[in-house]
Amino acid sequence: PIDTTGLYAHAHFPMGASINTNLLRNNAVYTALVAKEFNSVTPENVMKMDATEPTQGNFNFGEADYLVSFAQQHGMRVHGHALVWYQALPGWVTSFNGDSTAWENMLKTHIQTEVAHFKGKVVSWDVVNEAIDEDGTLRNNIWLQHLGPDYVARSFQYARQADPDVLLFYNDYGHEYSAVKRAAILSLVTGMKNRGIPIDGIGMQMHTNTTVPDNAIAAAITAVANTGLKVHISELDIAVNPGNDQNMTFTPAIATAQSQKYQNLVKAYNALPAAQQFGITTWDVGDADSWIPPFYHRPDWPLPFDASYKRKDAWQGIVNGL
Ligand code: XIL
Questions:
Q1: What are phi and psi of 316, to 5 degrees?
Q2: Where is each GH10 domain found (predicted)?
Q3: Which in 3, 99, 202, 207 has the greatest CB count within 10 A?
Q4: Gap from CA of 295 to ligand 1 centroid (Å)
């Protein structure tokens, strides 16, 4: 029998996806699928700094507001992404000329204007995204260069001042394949927590692939949960072509392996205490929309829905893991 129940109805925590507002506006099949399968959404790009503050002090929340109202109409949660990142910066930031006070005010204004705009509309924010580098040091980005290492903690304080109720997350990738990076992320986060910096959760992006062992993924999820903070699998996709084979095709055997990987990951997450299960969000919906092929210049099929928005074996794997 065909299971007509949406993904989220199978789970006791929210199930979400990152949403492309161009597709949401223009593709009725996509829009209906999103409403049916998910009860949480993250904007893929439209809450990033280049979208929301394209010129200094000139805020543009139109696309993000469109997503928020879609979510409200369908009873879905909105997770905000991302206030402070080193990518998706508007040109005026990369060429910003000012002393450390001017930089500080510019960052604070950005965070607080955006958080205040969405107060009561988003339940949570990725406050800082990808601040740790592969070697476990703070990433040498413009924020670190102009504001010093405590820009991460101050960003959380600024967000909290603008909204006392919204949940604040530190979001990053690599927990499941790099012990060095994971340790650095956990030390950053627990350091903030112990100093009384407001932080509610950790986003594990989980851009992973079928060659990463199940036990490494499960161990990473457990280690992150051991902080006591909420855990969001925030950008899940499971690539099947990490070797960049330009001639690869998506065979039934590959579909089965991917489905198994999704199932075991979801099973590991499902075992966490309910109070720490913020939810699982896939990064994009259908394989044709995935950021992976254009970013890595290769064919890939990382998502639970195919290019026609039909459920793949991976969809069933997720349900089986719940
Ligand atoms: C990606 C989007 O999916 C792309 O559309 C965009 O061109 C670049 O950013 N980690 C993140 C996300 O935190 O914001 C990124 O999203 C993917 C990697």
A1: -65, -35
A2: 1-321
A3: 202
A4: 9
Task: Confirm whether 176 is a catalytic residue.
Answer: no
- ipTM summary value: 0.99
Q: Average pLDDT of the chain?
A: 98
| Structure token pair of residue 270 | 């499902």
Answer whether 0.95 is exceeded by the pTM. yes
d(CA 192, CA 204) in angstroms, rounded, equals 17
Domain range 7-321, its CATH number among 2.60.120.1440, 3.90.940.20, 3.20.20.80, 3.40.109.10: 3.20.20.80
* Atom number in ligand 1 closest to CA 18: 3
Q: Please tell me the distance from the alpha carbon of residue 200 to that of residue 153, in angstroms, as a whole number.
A: 13
Determine if ligand 1 sits within 6 Å of the CB of residue 129.
yes
Rounded Cα–Cα distance for residues 69 and 15 (Å): 18
Q: Kindly report, residue by residue over 103-130, the tens digit of the pLDDT.
A: 999 999 999 999 999 999 999 999 999 9
Every domain of the chain and the residues it spans: 7-321
Q: Probe ligand 1: pick from 125, 237, 295, max atoms within 8 Å of CB?
A: 295
pLDDT-derived band at 2 (thresholds 50, 70, 90) equals low
